[in-house]
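Project standup — Tuesday

K.O.: blocked on the structure for the chain from last sprint. Re-posting the sequence here as requested.
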Amino acid sequence: MGVRGAMSELKQYFRFPFQDRESRSRFALGCALMLAGYIIPILPGLLVYGYALQILRRSAQGEAPSMPVWEDWPGLLSLGFRGTLVQLVFTLPALAVFLVGFGAYFGALIPLSIASSPDASVSDPAILGFLAAMLILMLSIVLGSVLLVLGLLPLPASVAHFAAQDRLEAAFRIRDWWRILSSNWLGYFVAFVVVSGLFGIAYWAFMILYSTLVLLCVGFVVIVPAGVYTLLVGAALFGEAYREGAESLEA
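H.V.: unblocked you, prediction finished:
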């Protein structure tokens, strides 16, 4: 989204999930699916993610942000599954580094616990191995966090290109979507700021509720609509940023 869109059109992106009765009912259905994810893993989340990518695609095609009808469930599932694969590829290096660090840490706990048993004395190799594992864990956290940020920054542009083209391989045509991103970097920056702000508000609201024993259960209920809302608004914003970038590139 360009400067003009950032200044005068953000309100419609904040309002569209609740703009009329039908939109509110469709938003409630998305929240119900995510709540069902506490019982049925993976599948409801893929459907909601596919629905968000459908909104992104419509926004990338120039449509005003709106809540489409929940239909073509296999198509939504396929779209969400392919979008999740794209996310996995971009975050896989960070996840691999985290896995190595935590694997080394828990692997070092086994000989240390054996050496610390009443029938054995703590040996220097066990202690040194545990310290080395702690160092590996800390390094993996730092390196994994850097890789995670580097993977997440270009992810919206990649996912938007995939959703707009409706081809999985389009997500990995870095040269194509990078040109679109660079032609409208301000739009992507605005979308990132808005989504990060919404996520931050939802996170702190959840933490406040989580810190009170009385409202502990309420926190898990509140975080679901907040997460769905952030996902839908972010999809519409990044779709608009993609559209303006593509149009700017063609011009």
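K.O.: great, moving the ticket to review. The chain has a mean pLDDT of 86. The two ends are 16 Å apart (CA to CA).
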